[in-house]
Write a structure and sequence with these properties.
This protein is an alpha+beta fold and 356 residues long. The protein is built from 8 helices and 22 strands. 22% of the residues lie in helices and 35% in strands. The protein has a 6-stranded mixed sheet with strand order 7-8-9-3-10-11, sandwiched between helices. Strands 14-13-12-15-21-22 form a 6-stranded antiparallel sheet, with no helix packed on it. A 5-stranded antiparallel sheet has the order 2-1-4-5-6, covered by helices on one side. A hairpin with a 2-residue loop joins strand 13 and strand 14. The two termini are 34 Å apart.
């Protein structure tokens, strides 16, 4: 695979309290990369720096081997061959959908441009709406039109800033699927900004997690979900029961059992077992652990129980697809040790976190 986008040592100061960077990343051709993180972490700013909407304080941005931004060079946005889909789509309200898509093809021969527009209208299922104006379209149709306009000049890369955030859940999931299919069909490299963990995991070939202007972790969806590098990364992509314990003889001893872990901690140090609710499994045998049902929520495919367990200050959350009937308000359970993550308690030092 050919490296397409290269960012090295990128820094952008956004006031006395926040600095983006330094950022180093590379994106390969035809990859769909998701920039993800909580609001204010700098992901949209990074997108605007790549697009040329903002200038970096230092560092370089290169595309296809050519420097777009650096100490003595800055290529204007319109000359970067980068497509951009804004959160509000930013379609020209006085132009029809066809005219919006044609806008980036003004320098091409008319017949060639019209052929390209017709192809994109068909790919985005907007052919019947070509003569309509943006206000006449639904949110999902506007999103598809904005993507078609960004793809029209065949950019090297398309940047999308929270493209699905303004849509209701069902429409968001459908458009997410259709958008990814279109990007793959057109062999388009894309960087998509989102604050939705599930969205990032479901569509990205590679996920880049940001926090406070820094890249915390990057890798495949499974890497970030199953092997988070710290507590922030773990809790961004999943919910957990945080069970305290004491580290002795290579195990974390907790109120619900002792679990093997390899944290580099001194004997007797305090640590936390991060246990996903689905790793709290119903147990029919009487040798399992038991908890009193404090709360119950039916969620269709799954049911969630909050269990009061002796020795734990906080309820233990269980999620299961089984249909359970607690006996006298009591449920028995066991812990699946294979998916437990371990992290030092606050104030403790460890060289790494570890999954059981």
């Amino acid at each position: 695979m050919q490296s397409m986008l290269a960012v090295n040592g990128l820094v952008r100061r956004l006031g006395p309290g926040f600095t983006l960077g330094p950022i180093d990343l590379s994106i390969e051709a035809r990859q769909i990369v998701c920039l993800v993180g909580h609001s204010g972490c700098g992901k949209s700013t990074l997108l605007r720096l790549i697009a040329g909407i903002e200038r970096p304080g230092s560092g370089t941005i290169g595309l296809n081997g050519k420097i777009l931004a650096g100490p003595d060079r800055f290529v204007e946005p319109e000359k970067r061959n980068i497509g951009f889909v804004f959160q509000d789509y930013a379609l020209f309200p006085h132009m029809t959908i066809e005219q919006n898509i044609l806008f980036g093809l003004r320098k091409r021969p008319r017949k060639e441009a019209q052929t390209r527009v017709a192809m994109l209208l068909e790919l985005t299922a907007l052919t019947a709406m070509a003569d309509r104006y943006p206000h006449m379209l639904s949110g999902g149709e506007q999103q598809r039109a904005a993507l078609a306009r960004a793809l029209a000049p065949e950019p090297s890369i398309v940047l999308m800033d929270e493209p699905f955030s303004n849509l209701d859940r069902d429409l968001r999931e459908r458009l997410r699927h259709d958008t990814v299919a279109l990007l793959r069909q057109t062999h388009t490299t894309a960087v998509i900004v989102t604050h939705d963990a599930e969205e990032a995991l479901s569509i990205g070939d590679r996920i880049i997690l940001m926090k406070s202007g820094q890249i915390i972790q990057q890798g495949s969806s499974r890497d970030l979900h199953d092997q988070p590098v710290d507590r922030y990364s773990a809790e961004f992509f999943s919910s957990f029961n945080r069970v305290p314990g004491s580290y002795r003889d290579g195990k974390l001893h907790t109120a619900i059992g002792a679990f093997p872990c390899q944290l580099d901690l001194a004997e007797g140090s305090q640590a936390l077992a991060f246990i996903r609710p689905q790793a709290v499994c119903p147990c029919l045998s009487f040798d399992g652990l038991s908890g009193s049902v404090l709360a119950h929520s039916f969620r269709g495919e799954i049911e969630q129980f909050s269990l009061g367990v002796e020795g734990l200050e906080k309820p233990l959350v269980m999620r299961t697809t089984q249909r359970l009937t607690p006996h006298k308000g009591i449920l028995r359970f066991r812990i699946d040790p294979q998916t437990i993550l371990f992290f030092p308690a606050a104030g403790q030092d460890a060289s790494n976190s570890q999954a059981a």
